[in-house]
Every structure is written in structure tokens, then in C-alpha cells.
Amino acid sequence: MNLQALIPLIGMLIIVFGAGLWAGKYVRSSTSFLQEYFLGDRSLGGFILAMTMTATYGSASSFLGGPGAAYNEGLGWVLLSMTQVATGYFVLMILGKKFAIVTRKYQAITMVDYLKGRYQSKWVVLLSSFSIIIFLFSAMAAQWIGGARLIESLTGLSYIGALFIFAGSVLIYVIIGGFRAVAFTDAIQGSIMFIGTLILLIATIIAGGGIEQIMSDLSQENPHLITPYGAEGDLSATYVSSFWILVGVGVVALPQIAVRSMSYKNSASMHRALIIGTIVVGFIMLNMHLTGVFARPIIPGIDIPDKVMPLLALEVLPPWLAGIVLAAPMAAIMSTVDSLLLLVSSSIVKDLYLNYMKPNASQRQVKTLSISITAILGIIVFVLALNPPNLIIWLNLFAFGGLEAAFIWPIVMGLYWEKGNKYGAIASMIVGITLYMILDAFDAQLFGLHPVVLPVLISFFAYVIVSLRTNNKISLSS
Fold this sequence. Notes:
Order of helices and strands: HHHHHHHHHHHHHHHHHHH
Mean pLDDT: 81
Shape: globular
Strand content: under 5%
Number of strands: 0
Radius of gyration: 22 Å
Number of domains: 1
CATH superfamily: Sodium/glucose cotransporter
């Protein structure tokens, strides 16, 4: 067990718990438990908004799985990963001010609240809630696996032991503080990650003998590692370009990101977050994925790619500095887990229980149920994470694709096209989810495209055509 590396990690966890206790007083004193616990009372400033979007979007997939994939695939995966640069900018430009205005009008606390207010349909709410629950379980499992892998690498504990520590820490933290605690600690983590990724990249370059030497070593091992096409030549230009639908355009539809577009306090905060978020995402993603590739000559033969980053940090940095650099991704993973737990919990409590089971539940009943559901969900995800894959990025990307196929057009067209209606939204969701599940199950890359592309395109036509065909029906019924 490396105590020098472990101490900064423990320090970060203490800060995280401190933030949870600090945020807990807002939860206890708030006149609206739901608004505070699930949305931070819509009071985020620009810097915190940018950082919470970055940390929530990044998480274990970007800081462990992404560099692990780059370790396997080479510079082609770095090119692919950089399609994420405009993600925060794109989300806030598309949703931004209009989404915040509309969700305040509907008094929406969750994304499903917005869909309910926009489409006035029980079936839209039910489809949305079940989609969030199903796909986010996959995303949550990826984060829990990532957190356990990191603790395992730092401490030398078994994977199961590390998973127990991670699960216990997360559940206590999220139950105490809710959304505000998550957003506040995201700002701390994002700042450390911004600096830490640069330190790790520089240390890796030095340890590898310089960029020229590293590139020579990569070329000698496999010339494809330094091309845009991946180690096996399977990253075609079409596939890499279409990947932007998954990690760029489609991110608008991710509930964990969309809810942050509801939580800022004013337009100035949103505009500040546009600039800060774009710079931070681009800087961190480039550094992390380049580091993953450059790690290959330094620590060859890694069997579990998700361990590349923690093992590399311990190899090229002093233990105390490695602990600091790794503490921020660890806390970011925790915050992402917390965000996803809150999102699924809110879908069950707010969108299903309060809408259709007990609309007149007291605030005390809602609070008790919210905390209980969050704890139960955490236990379920813990069980799912007991048998992890070697590369968690595929779990995360599967969840991304499913959520985007379900929600992109009901959200975006619902904001900008008045003729869109509940029938179009239902058709879009059913077509998008079904087609995505089929293509993903068979690992089909039709026309060389990522499996999410065709579901997103076809669900758009389903939304438009069905909405137009049923507008007369709605007019007559009203």
C-alpha cells in the first residue's frame, strides 16, 4: 500500500464530505426539498456551471476508460476523442437560455418534468423515466467500476474491497448533500484536473525520453499506432467523423447534462460557462488521451487498460504528487456517480411516484423516499459492478447512445418546433431506442457509421412525420 499516494486521496475525500455537510444545511433549511436536493435551487454561477458540466460529462470514462482506449488504439483515438471539445459550448448554445426559461415556466425540476409540461402525455413521461433508469444503470456501473479500479491501483486492495470503500463513500456523500454538494465539489475537482492532467502529460513525456523517442517506440511496436486509423486500422474516417454525433451533438440529450442547463442563476453565468467549459474540456481531453498513448512504451503490456492512468501516475510522478493528480479524477468519478444517482432517484420519486402514485405526498415523505431510493439504487449498482469488463468506456458509450437516441428530438424539437406533439415524441423515442438496441446488439456499423447515427437520423424523421400527420387529430380533440 502506497501511503504517500493515499494521503492526498484521503484529503480529497475529506474535502468532498465537507462539501456534502456544507450543502446539507441548504437541504435542511430549504422550503422546497425537491428544488434544492435535485437542482441546487437554480443558483449556479458560470464557473461552477462549467466545471460541473465538465466533471459530470468526463468522469471515469474520460479519465480511465478513454486513456485506456487510447493506450490500445494509439493516436487515432486521440483524434476521435477531440470531437468532444465543443460539447459544453454546443449544449449551452442549443439549450441554454431558452431551456432555462421554459423549464422555469413549467416549474420543472427534472428533464422529464420538462417533457411532461411540453407534451402533456403520460406515455412520454413513462417512456422517458424508464429510459433514464435503464440506460443510466449502465453509466453508473461504469463509474463505480472506475472508482474501484482507481482505489485498487493506489492501495493494492482487492477489486471487491476497493468497490466496498467507493460505494460506502458515495452513498454517504450524496445522501447528505444532494445536487449543490455535487456541483460545488465539481468546481474543485475540475480545477485540480485542469492542472493535474498537464503535470501527468509532461512527466510522461520526460519519462519516455521526449516526444520524438516516444513516437519512435510506438512506430517500432506498431506503425498503425501513430496513424489516425487505430492499432488495427479500424478507425475509419467515416466512423471517427460520425462519433461526433455520440459525444458532440447528441450530448444535448443526456439528462445528466441537460439538467445542468436548468440550474444556472442568470444569463451572465451561462455565457461565462460557455467559454470556460469549452477551454477546460478541450485541454483536459487532449492531455488525458495523449497521455494514454504515450504511456504505452513506458508501461507496456497492461492487461486491464482502465488501470493505465493510475499505474502511469505512480510510475512517472513522486507518490505524493501522483496521489494529488489521481485524487481529482477520483472525486470527479464520485460526483458523476452522485449526479447519476440523483437523476435516477428523481425519475422514480418525482416523475413516477409524485406524478402517478401519490401526488399529495408530504415534503417529509418525499425526503425519506428520495434518500431511501438513492441508497437502494446504490446497492443495485454495486451488485452490477461486481463483475466488471476490462474497459469501462464501452459501458458509458452504450448508455450515451441509448439516451441520445431516446431524447434528442423530443428535447430539441420540443423547444424549437411548435408543431411537434406527443405522438411525434413517442414515435421518435420508440424508433430511436429500438433501432439503437438492435444495431448495438449486433455491433453493426452500417455504412461505416457509429451505431448511434442512424437511430438519431431516423428518429428525427419519425418525430417530424408523425407530428405532422397527427396535428389535425390533436386540433379536433382540443
